[in-house]
Amino acid sequence: MAKFFINGGKKIEGEIEVESAKNALLPILSACNLIDGKVRLKKVPKFLDVLAMCDILNYLGGKTLWEEDDLIIDMSSPKCGDVPNSLADKVRASIFMLGPILARQKKVKIAYPGGCDIGLRPIDLHLSGMRALGAKVVEKNGYIYCDGSNMKGGDVILNFPSVGATENIMMAAVLTKGKTRIYNCAKEPEVVDLQNFLNACGAKVYNAGCSVIEIEGVDKLTGIEYQTIPDRIIAGTYIIACAMCGGKLTIKGAIAQENQVLLSKLSNSPCIIDVKDDKIKVKSYGRPKSFGELETAVYPGFPTDLQAQTMALQCVSEGTCMIVENLFESRFKHIPELIKMGGDISFRDRVCVVRGRDKLYGADVWASDLRGGASLVLAGLVAEGYTTISNIELIDRGYFKLEEKLTSLGLNIKRI
Ligand code: EPZ
Question: What is the pTM of this model?
Answer without folding.
Answer: 0.98
